C-alpha cells in the first residue's frame, strides 16, 4: 500500500515543536479546562462541579448568562459592522493605489502605517483624539454643534470604536486586495476594453472573481481579530458607558481578574474560543467548497 | 468590416515625441511601415520573438498608441481613438475568460456590452459555438474547462461580433496541445472562409502562418522585410532573413562576386538564369539557394560542383546532406535513389532557383532571351 520507508526516529524532530506547543498553549488551556469543572470555597480547595458553570453560562436567565448573551451579541454586531465597512473600503482603496512608479511605495507605506502601531498605543491615540474637551476629533465635533461624547453617550462610543478599527485595519484589507489585483494579467484588462466592458463590469467580472481567494483570507483575519478585540476598547471606553461597549473579552477580564470568579471565567473563555473556532471553520469550509464546485 | 491602412506607423516605447527624428532608428521597436490590410483577407505577421509583431498588432487594436504615423480604418483616422471605440476584436496568447460566467455568457459578453438585441445575441452565440464545437458546454461555467476549451472561448469572443473592422490574433495557439493545434488551425481557416472578416494573425511559427494566411508579413528587428503569399516567401525571399527564417532548413548563403550570368564563389562558378548588373565593390554580395532545390549526387554522376560530404541526416520523408564547399557549410537534398561513395560528392543547383542578394536584399536579374525569368520550375 505504501512503500515509503517508516523511520520512527523522525518523531525526534517533531518533539521540540510538541514540547513548545505543550507549554505555550496546551498546558495553560488545560488549567482553564480544569477551573471550568471545579469550584472552590477559598483556601485553594477545589471540588468537582460538573458542567454547572457551563449550564449557568448558557442560561440567559442567570446573571452571568445574561451578561454573556449581551456581550456575545455586541461582539457579533461589531464584527459584522467592521467587516461590512472594511472589506469594501479596503477593495476600493486597493483599486485606487497606483500600479507603477515611486507612488506605489509611498502609498503602500502610508497605508501600512496604522498596522505598525501597537494596539494599546492606537487606543491611547484615539482616547485623546476623541475627548470632547481637548481631543481634535471630539472638540471639533462639539464645536460644530454635533452631540458627541464617547464617555457618556453609547452611540458616540460605538462610533468611535468602529471608526478606530476601520482606521486601524482597513489598510490590511487594502494591502491584501492590492496583492490580488497585481496578480491579474494585463491581458484581462485589455480583453475587457476590447469587449467593450465598462469600469463596473471589469470590477464585477474580472477583479472581484480573481480577488476571491485573498478576500477569504482578509475576511477570516478581520473576523477573528475583531471578534477577539480587547485592547483598543479597553483603553478608549473601558467597556462603557455602562455596558455599551463591553465585549466578551472585556467582560471576561472583569469576571476573571476583577471578581476572581474563576469557574465562570473559565467556562466563558472556553465557549468564546469554541465560537471563534467554529465560525472560522464553517466560513472557510463553505468558501473553499464553493471554489471547488466547477460545474456551478 | 474595413480596410486598414498603416501610413508611416512607427513606435518607440521610450515615448519619442511626435514627428521626432526618424533617423535614429535603433530606438524604434517598430520602424516606419506603410501597408494596406485588405478587407476580408487573412494575414499572418511572422517573425522571431521581439521583432515588433505584437507591438504592431497592439497599435492596430489601440492598446498601444504609435509615436509616429497614421492609422486609417477605411477613410477614418483612428490613430488616437481608444480601443473600445475602434470596433476591433483581439484574441490573446493566454486564454482570457470571465470566471463567473457560463460559456454562453462569455461569448455573449462583447455583444451585450454593445447593447445588441437579445435574440440576435442568442443566434450569433449559437452560430459561433457551432463553428468552434462549443455547443455541448455552452451552459457550463467557463472556469472549470480545460485550457484548450478556454482558448476556444477566447477565440469565440473575438469572432462573435459580426461588424468588427478586423479580428486580431496574438499567438493564440501557444497554450494549445500540439495534437489540437492542427484542428484549431484548420478550424480558424474555415471560420475565416465562413465569416469573411479581415483577420491578422501573429505567430513565430512559420507552419502556422503559412497554413492560416493568404498573405504573410515577415518581420525582423522592427522592420517588415517581405509581404507575400506563402509561395512568394518560399520561392523568392526578398531578404536574406526571409530565406533563412522560412523553410526548414533555411536557405544556403555564399559570399560571391557576380559577373553577368555567372557567380563566382572562390574558384567555383555557378551559372545563373538571368544577367545581373555590376554591383558596387563596397556591397556585400551573396548567392542564395534553398536546400530543396539543390541536390547532392555521387561523384560518378559527372556534372556538378565538387563538395565534401560532412554528414547525412535522414528525416524519414527525405534525406539532407550537409556538405562543405571550401570553408562554407551547405545543406542540400539527397535524392532517395542516390548512394554516395566516399566523402566527396557533386552538388547541382537549378539555375532558376539561385538568388542574388546585395546587402541582404534580393535583386532581380535581367531576363535572358528564351529563358524563364527566375524561380519558375522548368
UniProtKB/TrEMBL annotation, chain A:
Pfam hit, one: BPD_transp_1
Task: Outline the extent of the ABC transmembrane type-1 domain.
Answer: 72-283
Keywords of this entry: Membrane, Transmembrane, Transmembrane helix, Transport
Topology with respect to the bilayer: Multi-pass membrane protein
Q: Which Gene3D superfamilies match?
A: MetI-like
Compartments, record wording? Cell membrane
Record's keyword annotation contains Translocase: no
Name the family: Belongs to the binding-protein-dependent transport system permease family.
User: Entry's PANTHER family?
Assistant: GLUCOSE IMPORT SYSTEM PERMEASE PROTEIN GLCT, TREHALOSE TRANSPORT SYSTEM PERMEASE PROTEIN SUGA
Put simply, this protein is called: Sugar ABC transporter permease
- Species per Swiss-Prot/TrEMBL record: Lichenicoccus roseus
From TrEMBL, chain B:
> Which Gene Ontology MF annotations are present?
ABC-type ferric iron transporter activity; ATP binding; ATP hydrolysis activity
Q: Does the keyword Cytoplasm apply?
A: no
Highest taxon, organism lineage = Bacteria
Keywords, sorted A to Z:
ATP-binding, Cell membrane, Membrane, Nucleotide-binding, Transport
**GO CC entries:** ATP-binding cassette (ABC) transporter complex, substrate-binding subunit-containing
Q: CDD domains given for it?
A: ABC_Carb_Solutes_like (cd03259)
Question: Which intervals hold domain ABC transporter?
Answer: 4-246
Q: Which family does it belong to?
A: Belongs to the ABC transporter superfamily.
Q: Which PANTHER family match?
A: ABC TRANSPORTER ATP-BINDING PROTEIN, MALTODEXTRIN IMPORT ATP-BINDING PROTEIN MSMX
Q: What is this protein called?
A: ABC transporter ATP-binding protein
Species, as recorded: Lichenicoccus roseus
